[in-house]
Amino acid sequence: MTKNIAVLMGGWSAEREVSLVTGASCSKALKAAGYSVTSIDVQRDMGALLTRLFPRPDAIFNALHGRFGEDGCVQGLLDILNIPYTHSGLMASAIAMNKPKAKQIFQAADIPVAEDMIVGQADIMAGDPMPRPFVVKPLNEGSSVGVHIVRDGDNSLPYDEAGWPWGDEVMIERFIPGREITVAVMGKGADAKGMTVTEITTQRGFYDYDAKYADGGSMHVCPADLPKDVFDEAIRLAETAHRVLECRGVSRADMRFDGEKIYMLEVNTQPGMTPTSLVPEQAAAIGMSFEDLVSWMVENAECDS
Question: Are residues 33 and 106 in the same domain?
Fold first, then answer.
């Protein structure tokens, strides 16, 4: 049995605060399950991190979210150190975080996605790049950080030339009306299985950062009240996306159902594990406690050595 666990949390991305909550929740559950746990608030100092990883833990619970913690960077470091870690490896993490690359892989696997284009600041400032409504997304952020819907009747865009927050380019994606659904997937390769389907509703208009993490920001129906064929298709698409990205451990696929077709929005390789998070809720729905879930994750930790 894996005994000594280091929990990496915090970091310096836009999702630092959520990561701290995830890390604290997972540390508490791992201790309750009988593990020896060291919690590490990761700063932008790799020398300090290496020092905290001595003596060498049996496994890492990676509770980092967003850039540098979820995009393959820390995974590469842990691969070099040959320390097993939870969630996906370097390549799957990097591809899933890069929205255009991930969508190319989804399309090759016949997973429906919304039409999109990659544009720069000047293109948007010159006029709408596609008919409204459309969604503006950073290319490599998680938790809906920086995502905006531009709708018919909006008098102004949610940004201007002085306040442009996204670097050189963004993804413009056709807005898919309908129901927000999500599926958590556990495992690796052919053994990866979807847990169940959750429908998410929110009074905020769409499932943005605040809706995901603020108390009362969203309501979850788990399992979702969907026709069986739609429910089963959501599970199939999530499992397929997990496999074609070569994810392992636990991922979560976010989708929209427009009444006729399910569209894949993204796969989160390190989904949140906060008190309001979807994965622990789905695990509970299939009879798996939070302690059992995090224990399974560390017992199945691995690295690409």
Answer: no
